[in-house]
Amino acid sequence: MNVSDEQKQHVRGLLVEGRKIEAIKYIRQHFGLGLKDSKRLIDLIDKDIREDEYQYDRGKVIRHSMKRGGQLVGIIFAGVGSILLGVALFIFFGNQRLINEGVVIEATVISTPSSPLFEYEVNGEIYKYQSDVTTNPPSYEIGEVVSMYVNPNDPYDLLIDSFPDRWLAITILGAMGALFFGIGMLVAVVFRPR
Questions:
Q1: For residues 88-96, average pLDDT
Q2: Strand 154-160 to strand 117-122: parallel, antiparallel, or no bridges (unpaired)?
Q3: Are 142 and 80 part of one and the same domain?
Q4: Is residue 61 part of a domain?
Q5: CB of 147 within 8 A of CB of 158?
Q6: What is the pLDDT at residue 45?
Q7: Residue 96 within a domain
Q8: How many domains does the chain have?
């Protein structure tokens, strides 16, 4: 491949001015190379240019890229935090709806105290409910009576009146959501463009 001094200087001039994409396009158009080979050649030429030859602040370009990346990370963290907070609020308001509209009944633990099976009666019919919450050591004993809120129109729509069932998921999701949101906002502020 024959490369004239004029072509070399043109490519070098584009790089010195910070116009790397234009330099890659020039190589591709004038020498018939593919994108990968053109980029590799431009990177080799770029290595031969001394730092003081550049007509733009390369550090500023790198710092700007880092700030944009930092902002993006901050936005992602804040977004995840918002989602977690939203889920915690959704659970909280769902629980509150059931507490306000439901009736309070008593249920008996009939087996497996660490992940209890409850038996309860609604409108004269007996129902059983296996808790989703598992605790070790067990939170209940067989035969223990607990309060629960039940939707009278749907006896399987219920909420056990205990901390693990009412508040554990809300507390964990809310704390994680607040932490992620706070970190995200802090990172976004630290990396904001000036």
A1: 96
A2: unpaired
A3: yes
A4: no
A5: no
A6: 81
A7: yes
A8: 2
Tokens read off for 163: 């901390």
CA angle 32, 35, 38 (to 5 degrees): 70
Report how far residue 165's alpha carbon sits from residue 95's, in angstroms, rounded to the nearest whole number.
10
Containing structural domain, residue 174:
66-190
Long-range pairs, 9-14, Cβ under 8 A, ≥24: 11/42, 11/45, 12/45, 12/49
Contact 117, 133 (CB under 8 A): no
**What region, left, alpha or beta, does residue 42 occupy, with left being phi > 0 and alpha being psi -120 to 50 degrees?**
alpha
The confidence score (pLDDT) of residue 67 equals: 66
What count of residues does the chain have? 194
Q: b or e along 28-44 (b: 16 or more beta carbons within 10 Å of the residue's beta carbon)?
A: beeeebeeeebbebbee
Q: On the CB side of 169, how many CA atoms lie within 13 Å of its CA? A: 17
Strand, helix or coil for residue 92 = helix
SS3 label, residue 108: strand
User: In Å, how far are 27, 75, 118, 147 from 80, measured between CA atoms?
Assistant: 43, 9, 35, 35
Pairing of strands 154-160, 103-111: unpaired
172's enclosing H/E stretch is helix 169-190
| Mean pLDDT, rounded, of the chain | 86
**Could you tell me which residues are beta bridge partners of residue 122?**
125
pLDDT tens-digit profile of 38-55?
A: 888 888 888 877 776 666
